[in-house]
Amino acid sequence: MLTDRRLVAAGAAVGRAGRWLGLPGPTGSQREAAQSFASLSRSEGRHAFVHTVRSVLDLAGQRVSGTEKLYLAEGLPTLIVWGRRDAVIPVEHAHHAARLIPGAQLEVFDGAGHFPYDDQPRRFTDVLIEFLDRTSPAHLGPAEFAARVAAHAHPHDIDTSAAERTALGDADA
C-alpha cells in the first residue's frame, strides 16, 4: 500500500509544489531514500528488498555484521566516509570500523545522512581526491589475500579432504 503508484505520484507532486513555493528541497540522502522507496512500487524491487531484509534481520534485530571481515583491509589504504545524521546505520559503526582497520581514515560529514556523497558532493569529491593523492595503491595478490583469510579461519570452518590438503602442500595429508 505504501508503494502504491498513486502515493508515489502524490509524493512527487508535493515535492514539485514545495519547489514552486520556494521551500528548501530535500537533501541528497532524502532524495536517494525517496527513489529507493519508490522502487518498491515494482514487484522486482519489492522482491529484492524483502530478500535482503530477510538475510540480515530477524526478530532480534540485525543478525549479520561485516566487522569480522575488516581484518582483510589491514595495511590497505582505507577511507571511511559517513554521514553524522545517518538514520539507517548510526555513525558509531563508522568509528568502530575505523578502530578495527589500522590506518583507516574516517571522515564524518556533519549534516549528511546515509548518502554523504549525495548530500555534500563537493566535500566528498575533495576528500576522495585528497585521499587518492596522498595514498599509494596496495598490492595484495590472490595468494596474500588467501593467506589472510586462512590465518583467521576457525578449524571447524575448514573441511578439507586429504587430497585437498596434499594439493595445498600439507605434508601430513
Helix and strand topology:
Blueprint: H1 5-20, H2 28-38, H3 43-56, E1 57-58, E2 61-62, E3 79-83, H4 92-100, E4 105-109, H5 116-119, H6 121-134, H7 142-152, H8 162-167
Parallel strand pairs: 3-4
Antiparallel strand pairs: 1-2
What does this structure look like?
There is one protein chain. The chain is mainly α. The protein has 3 domains: 5-62, no CATH class; 76-134, Rossmann fold; 141-173, no CATH class. 49% of the residues lie in helices and 8% in strands. The chain has 8 helices and 4 strands; from the N terminus they run αααβββαβαααα. The strands form 2 sheets. A two-stranded antiparallel ribbon has the order 1-2. Strand 1 and strand 2 (61-62) form a beta hairpin.
Number of helices: 8
Q: Mind summarizing the main beta sheet?
A: 2 strands, antiparallel
What is the top-level CATH class of the largest domain?
Answer: Alpha Beta
The order of strands across the largest sheet is 1-2
> Overall mean pLDDT score?
81
Count the E strands.
4
Q: Which series of helices and strands comes N to C?
A: HHHEEEHEHHHH
Count of structural domains:
3
Radius of gyration from the alpha-carbon trace, in angstroms: 22 Å
Stretches where pLDDT falls below 50 for ≥5 residues?
none
The coarse overall form would be globular
Please state the structural category. Answer: mainly alpha
CATH topology name of the largest domain, in short, is: Rossmann fold
State the end-to-end CA separation: 60 Å
Q: What is the name of the CATH architecture of the largest domain? A: 3-Layer(aba) Sandwich
Percent range for helical residues? Answer: 40-55%
Strand content: 5-15%
